[in-house]
Structure formats: structure tokens, C-alpha cells
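Example 3.
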Amino acid sequence: MKSFSKENLLQGDASFRRDFVNALSGYKSLNLIGTISKANETNLAPFSQVFHIGASPPLVGVLFRPHTVERHTLQNILDTAEFTLNHVAKSFYEKAHQTAARYEVSEFEAVGLEVLNRPECTAPFVKISPLQIACKLISSQTLDVNDTVLIIASIEHVWVVDGGLREDGSLDLEKMETVTVNGLDEYYIGKRLGKLSYPKPGKEVEKLL
Amino acid sequence: MKSFSKENLLQGDASFRRDFVNALSGYKSLNLIGTISKANETNLAPFSQVFHIGASPPLVGVLFRPHTVERHTLQNILDTAEFTLNHVAKSFYEKAHQTAARYEVSEFEAVGLEVLNRPECTAPFVKISPLQIACKLISSQTLDVNDTVLIIASIEHVWVVDGGLREDGSLDLEKMETVTVNGLDEYYIGKRLGKLSYPKPGKEVEKLL
């Protein structure tokens, strides 16, 4: 195995370190976050730092790096308290990647992703996205350790494409062709190995799907 | 599209809600966390809530649900300030799932995953894992919103299997057969769509890999 100490990483090349450390946790979720500014300008940006916080009530967390292109998104969320999460599917992952460019105009228009407005939320949705969520800001805090900002939001409304949701509440991400990201710029779709039975001591794991 | 309001979810079936909300962010990273108790008992448990916090210095975050099977892991981290992260690969994902069962003995022994001890860390590694990380606790806080506990740790040392690391610092998760999880119990491997060039306005996205 190749081995790296913290000191090796800190003394080494910055670009190597950034790519390496970003990838260490493994596959990450990928969502486009849609927001609208106080001046009514729509904004869209890709995020790989969206995670589950709780189901009752339904809560989601988002981590924002300080001083990055994502600043518009964070500012708009703090200003309006609303945002949308939109799964990225195989059919538009390159456009989703391109929304991270520093455009002067709305990323929806710049990359050619159509806005969907819904009465349930002031922020814009990505019309083509197979899973769309309306979120409402609950709290925001800056982590002392490196000025990363942690947003916690409630899940107010969810839309999921026909066929993407199973009867038990689980999602068929393979069928929706939801995309996952590795590091900063590498995109994958999933191939299912198995949906496994609830683990109990002394009981063989069963493949349910 | 099917649509669910927060009220629909809260008034609906608890098991549906748990599976649905857990899956909403999309694919999640999957790591086995290895710890050792003050009484020298090793512990191993699967986590899908490990995320990147920063590269300089290298930092990682882990979210722990309150009152779940993962409590041993959290207690051991708070007691010893050390833990390991181990990627789960296709060859042992069923064993990884089974470590979530409530065993009286060490999960390493119970499911048949061999311990690897390394001088760099008191916590145990999963010998067969293609990517292993030694972590040191920096801080822990309880989130007011639902008593979830957020741990922040520094990445002290990383080991990656030959062939898993590219020259630029990025990881080949497909080659390592790293597994990703959807919801609570559904496992996938990734199939690469593309590694894309840095996004710039007016510049066509290029596929680098």
C-alpha cells in the first residue's frame, strides 16, 4: 500500500492534497442547489456536501466551504431562508458540472437547464431533475476549525419521478440514473450489488433485491 | 411526479418515512469505523455519514445519530480520541453490513473481518480494506436540532492500495471497487461516466477520463 502522513500531505503539492483529501471519504451525494437572490436573480450550483440529519422531522445538512464559488448560494439561503435540492441524473451531469463556472448571469440560462417554479417554494427547481426537494433554513453555524459553514434545513416538500420510489419508501437510484461524485470532478452512476436484510447476530444476511 | 409534503411524511408510516428521508440526499459514502474501548475491546460499525471538511489541514466530519447501535463507536472515540476509517469494497460489503448487528463480542471476530494493527494508531484497521485512514478527534458537538452528534477529526495518516491512487492525487474508486450506500441497506458500486475539466464560462466541458 502507498502511505501518507499528515505531514507528507501538508508539505506536498497543494493540488495533489486537494484532490486526494476531497476523495478520501468515498462516493459523495450530488445535488444542484437552486436559490434566488433578494434582487430576484436565480442561482444554481453543484454540491457534494448534502447529508441526512434526521427523519422525524425530516432534516438535511449542507456544508459550505468558505470563499468559494458557492458563496452566492449561501448568501441567498441566508437572505431568503429557502432553497431547492435537485438530484443530478446521467442525462445532464455535464451541465450540472458546468454550473460551477463563475457566470455573470443565472447558471440555469448559462448552461441550458430549464427552471421549474412551484408555489411551495420561492427558490427555483431544475425541471429535468428526477428528485426535487423544497428546503427551509433552520440554522446556520460557522465551524471554528476552518470557517466552514454548516446549514441545517427542514425538508418541506419532495417530488420524485414515477418509478423512482418503491412502496417501502426506498428510492431506486439506479433507475433514476442519479449521479454520484468522487472528489471534485469525477462522476459515476451506481450499479446495485444488493439491498440487504436487517442485520442480526447469528442470522445470515439475505439479499432482498 | 409523486409528491409529499412534510405533513404527509410526518403523518405517514414511520418505516416509510425513515427509508425515504434517509435516501433523499442520494448516494452516500460508506466507511467502516474501527475503534477500541478503554477496556481494550475492538469495535467495528458501518457509517454513511462521513464527509469532507477541509484539505489544509486534512479534516473529516462524522455525524452520529443519538440512541442507535453506533453508540459504542461514539463512546470509544470520545474516550480514546482515535478511530480508523476503512473503505468498504465489493468483496466484503455483506460482512460490512452485518457489523451493524448488536453483537456482544467484537464485530471483527463476529463477521470474520481481520484486524490490522498499525503503530500509527491505537484503533484497529480492517486489513482487507483498500483505503484506510487513521483519525484523531478534534471536537465534538451536539446539534440542538435533534441531538445528533457532529465529530470533527484530523486525518493523521492514509494508506491506499496500489493502483487505487492516480498521480494527480485523485482516487480510482471504480478500480478499488469501493462501495456506496443508498438509504440504510442498499449497496452499489460505481460506473464512471467521466472525469471533467475545470468549469469556465464559455468553455466546453472536456472529458479527461
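Chain B has one domain: 25-187. Chain B touches chain A through 112 residues (CB under 8 Å).
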